[in-house]
Amino acid sequence: MSEEDRPVAKHGEPVPGSQSGQPIMILFDLLSRRWAMGILWGLSEKNRTFRELQAYCGSASPSVLNTRLKELRSVGLIEKASDGYTLTSTGRELYNRLEPLGDWAMEWVPTI
């Protein structure tokens, strides 16, 4: 089953690379899907329409982008707003927790 056909796992359900179904593994599985992180980063700056997200994500096909938006909406990380898509408070909290990890990675990558 391709990632586009695979629903977001629920607690206790296995995900690729982990049979445990632990919440962190479900999150990593979701965030590792094509353009999921790009969407979160793009919406961290401002609300964006589908076309703006497509431009922000560069080579994301409309079908993949649409699938990611549906997945991220289904788990409460983003929502539709009058001016496009926006992070929910949960999505904003996730972004705020991931941003320091991104900063750490910028320092780490030159060392490898």
Automatic annotation (TrEMBL):
Pfam families: HxlR (PF01638). Gene3D superfamilies: Winged helix-like DNA-binding domain superfamily/Winged helix DNA-binding domain (1.10.10.10). One of its GO terms (biological process) is regulation of DNA-templated transcription. Residues 22-112 form the HTH hxlR-type domain. Residues 1-13 have a biased composition (Basic and acidic residues). Signal peptide: none annotated. Keywords: DNA-binding, Transcription, Transcription regulation. The keyword Glycoprotein does not apply. InterPro entries: ArsR-like_HTH (IPR011991), HTH_HxlR (IPR002577), WH-like_DNA-bd_sf (IPR036388), WH_DNA-bd_sf (IPR036390). Residues 1-21 are annotated as: Disordered. GO terms for molecular function: DNA binding. This is Transcriptional regulator, HxlR family. It comes from Pseudovibrio denitrificans.
